Structures are given as structure tokens and as C-alpha cells.
Amino acid sequence: MKILIVEDDDKVAAFLARGLKAEGYLTQVITNGRDVLEAVRQFEPDIIVLDRMLPQVDGLTLCQQLRSQQVNARILMLSALSEVEERVKGLRCGADDYLGKPFHFEELLARIESLAKRGLSPVQSRQLQVADLLLDLDTMRVQRAGRDLLLTAKELAILELLMANSGKVYSRERILTNVWGLNEDPLTNIVDVYMARLRKKVDEHHPQKLLHTRRGLGYCLQAE
What we know:
Pfam family, one: Response_reg
Helix content: 25-40%
CATH class of the largest domain: Alpha Beta
CATH topology of the largest domain: Rossmann fold
Strand content: 15-25%
Domain Response regulatory: 2-116
CATH architecture of the largest domain: 3-Layer(aba) Sandwich
Largest sheet: 5 strands, parallel
Structural class: alpha/beta
Radius of gyration: 18 Å
Number of strands: 11
Keywords: DNA-binding, Phosphoprotein, Transcription, Transcription regulation, Two-component regulatory system
GO biological process, one term: regulation of DNA-templated transcription
Domain OmpR/PhoB-type: 125-223
CATH superfamily of the largest domain: Response regulator
């Protein structure tokens, strides 16, 4: 499988190329937005890892251009702008997935593997579902048993992380890194506070509980 990496930070680009090559992918690196369309025509990638903040042409514009030219490669957008409204912008411009920086390589790899399993059609249903819990990634609308849940931006980010990796246990530190970034104090109990709020909204009044605490390990979301 061929992956085009569009990233202007040389260190990040080299890290991605090295890691993806080690996983058996054929990669090519482009460091500016100006050369992307030509690279896509020549390299014909299956997946494009696209940084949002690029010189010459920004990632959102590039995403729109690629889709307008019927490029069917799956697009994983990377950006330090990881708030819900920013992810929604990226998805609405045609990205298949959106990952905030900083990120764990294993999560990026899991998202690439998930994209690789999808069909080639650019018009796809971008939804996560576990039991009767549904998260629409285009609108960031959450429903449990058909009823809308009103979640904050951070609650949505935690829920998306856990739903995208259903059954996988995430430690408090990993949730903190993925949702808040690396600048938060790892000793804070903010993850526990948000998980308690999220559990109340998602599981309260439902006999089947989806959010689980694994003592000494962390949290996971799965239908048991």
C-alpha cells in the first residue's frame, strides 16, 4: 500500500516515513502544498497523510481540490488544531479522518489500518458505533438508543478516542496526551473528572454499561 506524507516539518515527516516503512508501507514525502497534486498523479497513493498547516497551499484547500478532482485516496488530516470545530472543518472538506497533534504513532497506525479497510469511494459514512451508542464524525452528533447526548468538546474527544478503539484500555496518561496534549500536569485528576461526567451522560439510565474502569490500568469503552 502506498502512502503520501504531506508534512512541512522535516522531523515529523522523517519520523512518519521511517515508521510507516518499518510497517511495510511504500511512502513518499512532500513538504509543501504546491507539489501535492502532481505527486498524487505520479505516485497514485492509497492514503494521504495530510498536514493542515502547509506553506503555499493549506491542507483544507488541498483536501477540497483533491476531492473536486475525484481523487479517491483516503485522507488522514493531521493538525495541532484539534478542537471539535476544527475537526469538523477538516471532515467537511473531504478528509476521511482527522488526528490532532501531538499523537501516538500507534494510534496513527491504527487509523491508517482502519482507512485501508474502507472502500475507495470518497462518499462514505463516517460513523462510530458501539452497541446502541452512535457518534457521527461529520456532525459530531452523539446518540444513545436514539436519544441525543449533549457533550462538551473534551468529552467528545475522549469518546471518539475510546469508540475508535473499542475494547482497548487507555491509561489516564494516554488519554491526557491524546485529548489535552503534552502540556497538562500528569498528576492532575482531570481525566477522572471528565470520565465520571462522560459515564453519567452515556451510561446513566441504561442497563448495558459501555464505559468501564480497569483498576490499575485505565478506561475502555465496549459492550460487555
